[in-house]
C-alpha cells in the first residue's frame, strides 16, 4: 500500500510552532491549494484548505523561513487522528504529515529562488530548477496532447 501526498499552495496564515514535553518541535500550518477547475456559477477557481503538520528539524525550518502568503511545495503522507472534544464527542482530524518541502519563490515574492529541505534538515539551493517557479497559476492540463 502507498500513502503519499504532494501539494503546492500558499500559506493561509503564519505557521504555529510548539514543542512537545520531550522537546520535539512541532509546526502546524494550513495550505491553500487551488483546484484544477473553475466554479460554474462564479467562473473563479476554488481552493481546498489543507491542514499540515511537520516535526523536529523540518518544523523549525518551516517556522523560521515561512510566513503567510508564501508559496510552498509539500510532500508527505495523509493521516487521520481523533481525540475526545470538550463536549465529550469524538473529533476527527485529517492532515498531511510533511516529510519534505520545496520553497517556491522567494520571501519577497519575485519567484527567483527555490530551496529543498528534507526531514533530515539538510538544505540544497536549486535556483530556478523547479518547473513551477515563476508560475503562481494552477497548471492547466487541458492543452496536453494526451
UniProtKB/TrEMBL annotation:
Instruction: Return the Polar residues bias intervals.
Output: 109-136
Q: Which GO terms describe its molecular function?
A: DNA binding
InterPro entries per record: NA-bd_OB-fold, Primosome_PriB/ssb, ssDNA-bd
Return the annotated region ranges for Disordered. 104-146
SUPFAM superfamilies found in the cross-reference section: Nucleic acid-binding proteins
> Record keywords: Zinc included?
no
Pfam families from the UniProt entry: SSB
What is the superkingdom listed in this entry's lineage? Bacteria
Q: Which UniProt keywords apply?
A: DNA-binding
Q: How does it assemble?
A: Homotetramer.
Q: What is this protein called?
A: Single-stranded DNA-binding protein
Taxon lineage: Bacteria, Bacillati, Bacillota, Bacilli, Bacillales
Amino acid at each position: 500500500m502507498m500513502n503519499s501526498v504532494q501539494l503546492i499552495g500558499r500559506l493561509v496564515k503564519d505557521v504555529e510552532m510548539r514543542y512537545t514535553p520531550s522537546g520535539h518541535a512541532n509546526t502546524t500550518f494550513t495550505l491553500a491549494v487551488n483546484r484544477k477547475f473553475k466554479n460554474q456559477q462564479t467562473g473563479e477557481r476554488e481552493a481546498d484548505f489543507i491542514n499540515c503538520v511537520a516535526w523536529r528539524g523540518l518544523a523549525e525550518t518551516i517556522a523560521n523561513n515561512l510566513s503567510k502568503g508564501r508559496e510552498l511545495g509539500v510532500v508527505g503522507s495523509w493521516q487521520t487522528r481523533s481525540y475526545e472534544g470538550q463536549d465529550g464527542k469524538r473529533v476527527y482530524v485529517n492532515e498531511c504529515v510533511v516529510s519534505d518541502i520545496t520553497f517556491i519563490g522567494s520571501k519577497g515574492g519575485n519567484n527567483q529562488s527555490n530551496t529543498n529541505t528534507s526531514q533530515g534538515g539538510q538544505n540544497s539551493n536549486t535556483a530556478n530548477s523547479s518547473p513551477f517557479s515563476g508560475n503562481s497559476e494552477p497548471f492547466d492540463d487541458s492543452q496536453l496532447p494526451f
